[in-house]
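Q: Could you fold this chain for me?
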Amino acid sequence: MRAHRIAFVALAVGLVAAGCGGKQTNNSADQPASGEKVSCEASAGRITIATGNTGGVYYTLGGGLAQLISDNTPLKASAAETGASVQNIQQLVAGDYDVAFALADSAADAVNGKDSFEGKPQDIAALARIYPNYTQVVVRADSGIDSVADMKGKSISTGSPKSGTEVIANRLLKAAGVSDVSAQRLALRPTVDQMKSGQIDGLFWSGGLPTPELTDLFTSLGDDVKFVDITDLLDDLKKINPVYEKGTLPAETYSLPSDVPTIVVPNLLLVNKDFPAGNACAITKLIFDKKDDLVQVHKAASALDRTKAKDTAPVKLHPGAAQALDAG
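A: Sure. Below is the predicted structure, expressed as structure tokens.
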């Protein structure tokens, strides 16, 4: 079983690498009339999946999803490393990708035409609500930072440009009244490298559990780094978007001395509104029917819950995905 898991993950990551930089097309166009059911079968074609930073769960799980689709449907799927949520949505709408991972707050901004999408509502739909992202704020123990407010004048990685992490980081900093942080807009791998070398004082990261790069950070630095409790800012974030919720980062995730209270945000799997209904139905059904295969790729997939999958508001559920979830 261990050998099977290693092989599956290796192949999944290979599919991510293969997808980088290439736009694929899906030639099917089956759209049902209102209330009409479609055949829940994928058509032959190629699709690409927009994921996120190397070392993040989007990247790993996206490769696994591409493998799952390719192995079980006539579709050939590949996955690409990206800057994550905001960029994913922009490039999904532009037609560069067919399926995209995104945080629910960024997706809500997109359909409402707010913030990064100001005045430009995006025509996207959801295949499903998938697993939650945990807002993980880590600082060097000698930085003098015990809260987000303490980040004033410090060097902090706020995540990749146009990422969901950057959106949440900026909202937390604003809520804490911090306007003069030295923001380093870094992807996760260089963020961790600079934390190790002492070049930056802290980081924001929004991801599933565990995030391999943060496992590496805590394994390497141990007590020299620590988490910051950000839940005092939850009420301010909920005024911006009600999708933010209180959660707990379990101590065993990174071998911590105790659990860490934090803020969680659901993730959505997105497509364009005109994504073929048969493909939407087949992919959504596959995700939940083959959940155990995705858990082998990353245990964040263990949070996949068919009963919660339709909870994607304000993003509308794609009709094909709704059919798959209604069928149970």
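A (continued): The CA atoms of residues 280 and 295 lie 21 Å apart.
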